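User: Fold this; tokens only.

Assistant: Input:
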Amino acid sequence: MHPLHVVIFSLCCLLFTVPSLRAEPDAAKLMLLPESALPAYEANIDHAKLIQQRSKSIIRQGARIYQQVCHSCHGDLDKPGSIPNSLRFGEGKFQHGSDPYTIYQSMTRGWRAMAPQVTLVPREKYAVIHYIREYYLKGHNKSQYFDITKDYLDSLPKGNSLGPVPERHDPWNEMNYGPFLTGTFEVTSEASRARPRPKRPADYIGPDDNIAYKAIAIRLDQGDG
């Protein structure tokens, strides 16, 4: 029986790059997706308007998306994420920039170890950004909280669209890697299964909830079977 190498895929943060010990290249060169690979609507987004729209309902939406998409890698105030060098927003320092538009670019195109969030539309990305800014940065990491001014808003790329209307996502149904050998693993204990579950929205994933990881077993050497 020849050995199989198992590669575990994470939807939120894939380690595409390893930080170099040399001088940092231009930030644009660390983007994972070129602008030509983005949806056409990204060229006409009204970033200033989306940045100014930060109502309580939008921040609550951002909190839900953060739990689904970001929490497993970035963690929260109590626990670090699953990727050791992922930024902990409550205490870390942004490498690329902490202003809303730069964070948006990191989410949209990916940056270094941060995978592009291709399933999120602009309104969802800015909802997450508002949640991170208001909950983590403003409340616990003020040195990284960027003050939004009129001059800053005027400097942003101009557009007249907010992008597509967000649609409901079920990540567990969208993890389709094609015709490959896959497996789903769930790690839990009898004690955790016996605990009563608190009442939460159906799409909420808490830090102590069971997480199912999908894996793809790929043969890297030749052989039978």
